[in-house]
Amino acid sequence: MDESLLSLVIVLIFAFLTPIVLDRFRISFMPVVIAEIIMGLIIGKSGFDLIRGGSWLDILSTLGFIFLMFLSGLEIDFSAFRSSNKKIKLANGKTEPNRLGISILIFSAIFILSVGLSYLFVWMGLIDNIVLMTVIISTISLGVVVPTLKEANIMKTGIGQIILLIAVIADLVTMILLAVFVSISGDSQGNMWLILILFVAGILLYFVGRRFKNRPIIERLSTGTVQIGTRAIFTLIIVLVALSETLGAENILGAFLAGTLVSLLNPKPEMVRQLDSFGYGFLIPIFFVMVGVDLDLWSLLSNKKLLLLIPLLLIALLISKIIPVFILKKWYDTKTVLASAFLLTSTLSVVIAAAKIAERMEVITPEMSGTFILVAVISCIVTPIFFKKWFPKENGFEPKQKVTFIGANQITLPVSKQLDKELFEAAVFHKKMEKPDSHISDTVFNITELPNYNEAELENAGVFETDILFISTGDEELNATLAIHAKELGIERVIARIESPDLTAPLKEHEVEVFSTLLSTKAFVTALIESPNIADIFTNQETALYEIEMRNPNYHNMKLREFPFVGDLIVVRIFRDNESLVPHGDSRLKIEDRLIVTGTREFVDDLMREIQF
After folding, report:
1. Paired strand residues for 597
2. Rounded to whole angstroms, how far apart are CA atoms 533 and 529?
3. In degrees rounded to 5, what are phi and psi of residue 126?
4. Of 98, 118, 274, 543, which one has the greatest count of Cβ atoms within 10 A?
5. pLDDT tens-digit series, residues 557-606
6. Considering the domain boundaries, does residue 316 fall inside one?
7. Where in the cell is it found (predicted)?
8. Is residue 534 in a domain?
9. 448 near 471, Cβ under 8 Å?
């Protein structure tokens, strides 16, 4: 067998075994990409030296690097930059700060401090390039921050959103700074203005994509063996990567720009999952394993200067985040602020990118590049552990979800009153000229009247500042129009009352949930006649069906038979991503699983407390 192909086989086998080993030994604190680098260390120069490289690995590793940068851009949620004027009271009685404003302020302080620390490293003679050092100190790993926030159940809380925004801003700014570094340090010095052509091309491609995204032909060609959307994305990546290299920038800038453009176009979740699956299932593990393979720890550890750099750089990372984040002490307690600062100290993709590029451009030595990567690995292992240890559990409770109803009638009004007050905050809006249904019009409801259902009027009234929007006016075409507009504004869940099948298909394409009184009544009456006991489950408050999300990392990967269920409870179904699983004793619980259970409310509440927090 060709030596290059044999090396690829070894890399792929170890990449395949890595998550199995982590799962088997329940090493939940370590990101899988870090484990892949460690696997690379074992089989590479620092370990058994089994890998000889070659064209196969070089090409696939480069593609993995490009795809990693693309997914880093895709990870950026630009809806997070929408600032809300709504004043939120914290548990301590203080008013929450403006999330976007405070995030920009904190990152500005991080960046200024990083520049100062970079000058200090240059003054000490540890490195020569201030721009490169600023990139490495100021960057924050979205790939570590996002899953850690989700696991801690604080993604949608105020502090969670602030942490996320700081990380997003850091990712954007440091990628641009890395492009500047390449321009001023590479062969194309003085041609930095050429990079503007890349961004102009990106903007033009964005408008082209936006124009054609929802065309019928695109929808028609997005199924079966054509998959035009996937083809378009890969074409976009290669075009921008090629343009980036032609203009004297690094290929990763084009890939990152492609990711941000796709993110701005709001791709369907199924498409994002497909891209994640391809990237993190094949190309990206090869890149991370090869990062470990190429890392020569013995050479690095024999250099006293580099050994000194490791703790100093870790200290610099901590100082650059802890001091600016302490601005939040005005609103949050010390533990919350300190834990947040530690999480923001994690660095990974951009540091590896910067180190590899600087090494290739001969700005730094391979040993210095390895030192930066080693520091990034250490930060990604250590900082999430300290975050979980220090972050107060009481801050992990998500705020009430805001549910807004458009249209007051015999469906929306009773539901708005019946929702669990501890979990939901309901508001009803309707037109002044319309009257609620006669038989409930005398009941006292909290209804806000509007002159009309015009989109601008609804926006001014704050109708679209909600988590869940239920649209049930008397005009189903208006319901459909408002539902699509709400999804374009980024509302996570939109439910529209639609009776006509013709309107249902286009709404589902926009991921709008459709509710039909006719179909619901027909289904329930059929169940009532054919299966009265099943129908009773939906109406009996004592033994109803409940959906509970599994968020407690202590029970991740635990078999149902091992879980300490108490009382009168039955797990009916487990929903994982788009899968519906029939539970049995050997079924393993996973973070973000949605369990459908039935039982008495007392025991359901106990289970909710056990696995959600």
Report:
1. 546, 571
2. 10
3. -85, -25
4. 118
5. 787 777 776 556 778 788 887 677 888 777 888 887 888 887 777 777 77
6. yes
7. Membrane
8. no
9. no
pTM strictly above 0.70: yes
3 state DSSP class of 82: coil
Question: For residue 222, how many other CB atoms are within 10 A of its CB?
Answer: 18
The tokens describing 534, both together, are 């099943």
Band (pLDDT 50/70/90 cuts) for residue 316 is very high
303 and 324 share one domain: yes
Does 105 map to a domain?
Answer: yes
pLDDT of residue 613: 59
Amino acid residing at 50: L
Taking CB atoms within 8 Å and a gap of at least 24, the contacts of 481-489 are 482/406, 482/453, 482/455, 482/458, 483/507, 483/510, 483/512, 484/510, 484/512, 485/455, 487/511, 487/512, 488/266, 489/464
Q: Determine the Cα–Cα distance for residues 358 and 129; give it in Å rounded to an integer.
A: 10
97/236 same-domain check: yes
Separation of alpha carbons 549 and 612, rounded Å: 6
Residue 280: partners with Cβ closer than 8 Å, 6 or more residues away: 71
Identify the CATH number of the domain in which residue 546 sits. 3.30.70.1450
Q: Are 359 and 412 part of one and the same domain?
A: no
What does residue 468 show for φ and ψ, rounded to 5 degrees? -130, 130
Helix (H, G, I), strand (E, B), or coil: what is residue 356?
A: helix
End-to-end, the C-alpha distance of the chain in Å comes to 52
The whole-angstrom separation of Cα 561 and Cα 241 is 50
Q: Are 21 and 35 in contact (CB under 8 A)?
A: yes
**Residue 602: both structure tokens together:** 């007392």
DSSP, collapsed to helix, strand or coil, labels residue 84 as coil
The residue with tokens 């001014």 is 460
In whole angstroms, what is the distance from residue 494 CA to residue 463 CA? 12
- Contact yes or no for 348/141 (Cβ under 8 A): yes
573/293 Cα distance (integer angstroms): 43
* 24, 120, 142, 545 from 134: Cα distances, Å: 39, 11, 18, 53
3-class secondary-structure state, position 401: strand
275 and 417 together in one domain: no
424: left (phi over 0), alpha (psi -120 to 50) or beta: beta
Six-digit token string for 549: 């999300």
pLDDT at 537: 62
Q: Are residues 346 and 407 in the same domain?
A: no
Q: For the segment 149-165, what is each residue's pLDDT rounded down to a tens digit?
A: 877 778 778 888 899 88
CA distance linking residue 51 with residue 45, whole number of Å = 8
Range of 439's domain? 401-520
Residue 356 token pair: 């590899």
Please give the tally of structural domains in the chain.
3
Rounded Cα distance, 104 and 412, in Å: 40
Closest CA to 311 of 378, 400, 242: 378
Q: Give the mean pLDDT of the chain.
A: 83
Nearest to 167 by CA among 81, 88, 97: 81
Contacts of 193 (CB under 8 A, 6+ apart): none
Question: Can you tell me which residue has the tokens 């961004």?
Answer: 199
Same domain, residue pair 499 and 547: no
Does residue 428 belong to any structural domain of this protein?
yes
Same domain, 149 and 218: yes
> Based on the domain organization, do 429 and 343 belong to the same domain?
no
Q: Which residue has the tokens 């999300």?
A: 549
Which residue, chain included where needed, has tokens 């033009």? Answer: 204
Collapsing DSSP states into helix, strand and coil, what is residue 405?
strand
